[in-house]
Protein 1
Amino acid sequence: MNARWPVVRTLFTYELRQTLRDRRTLFMSIVLPLLVMPIMLFGSRKVEQVRERKLEETTFSVAVTGSQAGPARAVLEGMRARLARQGSKPDHLRFELVTKDDPLKALNAGEVNLVIEAVSAAEARQRAEREEREARSKRSDRREEGADRAEADPVEDGAPVLVLVSREDQVRSQRAAGRMIEALRETRRLSRGDLLAGHGFPVAMDKVAVISETSLASAGQVAGLTLGRLLTLLLLLFILSGGSVVATDTLAGEKERGTLETLLTTAVARGEIVAAKFLLILSVAIAITVIQAVNLLLYVGFKIIPTSEGFSAAVTPPIAALVLLLFLPVAALCSGVLLLVSGRAKTYKEAQMLFFPVFLLGMVPAVAPFLPGLRLRSAIVAVPVANIAVAVKEVLTGIFDWPMLAVAFLVTAGAAAWALLLAARTLSTERLITASDADATQHFGGPTLLGRQVLTWFAVIWALVLVTSTHGAEGADIRLQVLLNLVLIFGGATALIIRHYRLDPREALALRAPHPAAWVATVLGAPAALLSGVGLFLAANHVVPVPTKLLESFGESLMPDTIPFWQMVIFLCVMPGVFEEMTFRGVLLHGLSRRFRPVAAALAVGAVFGLFHFSLFRLVPTGYLGVVLAAVTMLTGSIFPAMLWHAINNLLGLGAAKLNVSLADLPWTYYATSALVLALCFYILWRTRRPYPGLRTGTGRRPGQEGR
Amino acid sequence: MSQSTVAVSELVKVFYDEARGEVRAVDGISFECQPGEIFGLLGANGAGKTTTLRMLATILQPTAGTASIMGHEVCAEPEEVRRSLGFYSASTALYPRLSARETLEFFARINGYPENRLAARVASVIERFGIGEYVQARVEKLSQGMKQKVSIARTVMHDPPVLIFDEPTVGLDVLNAIDMQKVIGEFREEGKTIVFSTHIMSEAEKLCDRIAIVHRGRIHATGTLASLREATGCHYLEDIFVHYVRQAEAA
């Protein structure tokens, strides 16, 4: 872009003047966030206080079961009396012992908050040994007092062992277990003191040794960690919400009003228009950031927001300046992306629809600082925004890795420049700038229109799945979640898309028989792809450090121990194989294959598939699987091999978790062999390939795509 | 003709429509215009008039052929081309939150009008178009007629030698349409080259020095009204138009 800066300045000045005159934009981008923040802060604090008070006042119902239920009840009643005598915290005493025929069922139904299984020492030992052999679950639904392996109290014959069974996914149950453990420990401590005093021990138990805790981290570093984790997320929230209002108006709004066409007939170059609009959004973004920062500091200054004592130590003026500098490319990238989205939309309404998923997607990299142990000196430095988020956390905790800080800055700034170039290109895409023209494709529907709009559909579906996943019913059964996501959302969206674009289901979903050899390749290829994927990233680990969690994610699957294995196979292997394939290798691939050439379409399907798994670490393995499955579908011309491949892949992950086998710890020969097998499978698929309908194979550029 | 300010030769525009495939909106159009001339493109909706004018204004890029304004080729020197012309159409709107004066200053500046002569130019344009009464008002507050005057004024703010009017009277009431025709006539008197598109026969008959009959992306006849009458034997432009369209359909 050879921009003439006086022209850019003129454009920018007039744009800014118009923005400042638009009360709606000012209110939505600046005033509203200013009001929302204190309301949110006060609101959430108030809700938390009320919730905490209610929990403290709650009398939890506890069911006692097991062979030692009788003695255990006596122990618990004795405990209550002992604590009352001692003047212990009143909430320790707020539990009632109830009787239930099936206590575990009652716990699942929420009728009781806690179940105490009272067993003999021998039973506890047997249980411990059994669990030692069987324990595979990553989630611990049990807390044990007496026989807990982690607590490692010796089990004495004669004393009842109390096993506390709770549901960690239910707040009241979790709190009941915590309160009971605390009460039991307190009672044990008091009893020990009584015993020792009875035997003439001269000092009270709590005077025997005074424990003092100290941390090497300064108060500033501790406060910096908290602040550093949140800062990028908050910044993105403000920039994206405020900036999107301006961005929508400045390009999509101009198209709709017809002023863009007026501008395009003047002597101004398109690059100059984009530069001026970018500067406008960036100015608004920076203004929002500064206003919100001042707003935040005022609240802190007036003690409206409580902060730890290390806050001022964490944010010294040089550090604040460095953090602001690091945030510049983030603000630039956000502005570039917002401009790009606005440029891609032909109307105000379309831009608003596109902003919703972009908003959610934009937040994903900002959660990187919450990942434990993630350092800037890792592969994360290559991920725009996520790298700055981690860099800010490190800076605020006193870690200054200057070379990596520079790399992070350049990577995100580079991404911003790229977004800007893409935005400039939207002004040269004739289809996008002549908004007033009727688009014949809009009236015809069909796969060609799907190709143009399919990513928007998936962005909306993605946002919907994200919302249902994060706001799902507390403690909802995984089977219910699978049914909701796979059947209702994926199945429903697939059916809706097919109906909306008047597609032939057989074509859209590639419902046709593959070559018989494809089945052989599938059965061999699925495990080979899984293992070679792990091997690939193990090899990459030697070049760029790959987080261990990423490698583990290849075999990871959600496996609650309360659901029978056969049901897990149905819900986590068969159903994803069918529904996810219909959605991703069905309609998504059908649409994208009209728009992109095969390799690009496979990569795009993989990227979308990865993003739907909502985990930074699972993004790579699921993205890899998505690419492989798209390739399989395009080569076989059928969706059925991909369905089987997907089901086998998930089954292997489930099996590995069940047998506690780590796929990342196998001998290298396994990975090498699997890569060879995978290559052989793709050779078979290639030799026996069947046409996938509508695949783009030409290399020529379509006319009407370029302008100046 | 060495004096041509607008020269169009075998201009083609092919759109790629994903549903219909290739659509030849403009299919080999050629014409030339001289200073002090109003050249009219007469055709039904969808004939290719707007696409042709948009290519001249460099909003769209030609698929084939050449076009130049004041000797500047549209593909090679798009900014010079735009500096040499003023483009007005029913779809080119004004910024609602700028005042009429700010609008005129803005368009003069971005079209490279010298800053030291800007104030005088703004004053003379305001006087010429009689917009002094509401020059401080924001465009969003103006009536349709007032907006139209400001819009024409911004088109000529940088005093371009070539003016393109794409269906300028669409959506205007009779009085405003007559005003518009009068202003276009005045520009001709000032020696500007005017390329004008319309589907209204009476307008073409009244204003144009030469008329090109456009149908399905092609020019089927070009000439003065008298020469077209002579060639077809028809008196009314409507009949002349139908004559050429039927001839094209039959071919």
Note: The first strand of chain A starts at residue 60 and ends at 65.
Protein 2
Amino acid sequence: MFVYADNAATTCVSRAAIDAMLPYLLEDYGNPSSLYAFGQKAQEALQEARETVAKCIGATPREIYFTSGGSEADNQAIVSAARVGARHGKKHLISTKFEHHAVLHTLKKLEKEGFEVTLLDVHEDGVVRLEDVEAAIRPDTCLVTVMFANNEIGTTQPIREIGALCREKGIPFHTDAVQAAGHMPIDVVDMNIDMLSMSGHKFHAPKGVGVLYARKNMPLVNIIEGGAQERGKRAGTENVAGIVALAAALKESCEHMEENTAKIIPMRDKLFAELSKIPHSKINGSLEHHVPGTVNMCFEGIEGESLLLLLDRDGICASSGSACTSGSLDPSHVLLSIGLPHEVAHGSLRLSIGEYNSMDEIDHIIEVVPKVVEYLRSISPVWDELEKGTRPHLI
Amino acid sequence: MALYSDKVMDHFQNPRNVGKIEDADGIGEVGNAKCGDIMRMYIKVSDGVITDCKFNTFGCGSAIATSSMATELIKGKPIEEALELSNKAVVEALDGLPAYKLHCSVLAEEAVKAAVKDYYDKNGIAYDPEMFNNLEDCEHCHE
């Protein structure tokens, strides 16, 4: 059985998205900037997509900027706030320890340029505290950026409250909503969001297309210079087919959100319930504040990459935050940020499921994971020591 | 291209000589759980020859595969030959490893040396300590 359980990494493109985009690849392939009717047809498609996306998040079409994806949107939002802040002598930014690298590395770049960055603690449950945000705010703070939902552990953040606080203090508020868009209700007005990033391929649109929402009058600085596309804020001929697909996919996801969530939650809960029966395992992140489909657990005494390779042999696609899978010597910064010791973080497993998964697939995962964990423990000198009592159990 | 060669995948999925030797003549353990890999190598020695060899490994696919290959390369060999086993030989026997996984092969080489050192120590066999200079440090932790 093949089970794709890595929907937080990417998703399949939905039929609705493909049907929506194909005409703009095959027939109406004109350049939206062209004057003739054939080009204007593409321009109209863009406008329609912009309206659709705006509607899905409670924005107006003029506040929607299409980008190459979530990373570009994050970069543009943060750099814009920093550049504008610097003009007013404000060079302090607030974020969290467990943001996506698109945010963290952009902040790092700004730090090298002389900006100051405060990264908030996310506590053991993976949730930012409003009082921590408030305490970090300074007169020279030019941006608060806090992700809507974490990509590894799936915890959601008090976005509305942070937004209200920032609004009250007059500080722009950005949220990386890549893991939330299409999966959780978002209303930028109600949630006091000034800027928001999303990525199409996390909700069944193709890769390479995303959105930056920037509230009216929120100044944007260009990351990509060139033509006057996207109201002069993002140069480059628009990815018309991709944008049309993104709009179709987001619309479909938002329209079916309740039904999808109702399908996903029992599958997720079964994974949590059954995999928790594995001794010395741990669920990472608060379950109270959580996206529907993400399951992140640690299994003591084993290492994540070997776990993934053996799951792959049994047809299961998943991910891990071990050092070997992160391509560095340290395990995932997200797992470390919630206080997990390195040894434990190396044995992490993320399963992220969506509405395309079935309970049969969940049962397959539940059958395979405990066997693989048991096998890896049987050959692990760390597990041997844990069992003998010469090494203390940490979970 | 796949992350690992077919040989690495074979040794990872069907590791040779995995397990423990309860009455081992030498046991070597290298690596660090904090860094994500620990190898423990057991050897049986008779008349200066490694007659049996087993391993336990906590680590990624290449850590398990290099441990497995190292045991194959030293089993049945005189101790002197086992001490000459280089990480490069392990990598070659596995048809290569991705560059960022080479440290796993270094660990495999060190695990063999650590087991031999333990055998020497236990049996009061004199040796040049220079041979085992690098074993105390997990290089990969200090990079």
Note: The mean pLDDT of chain A is 97.
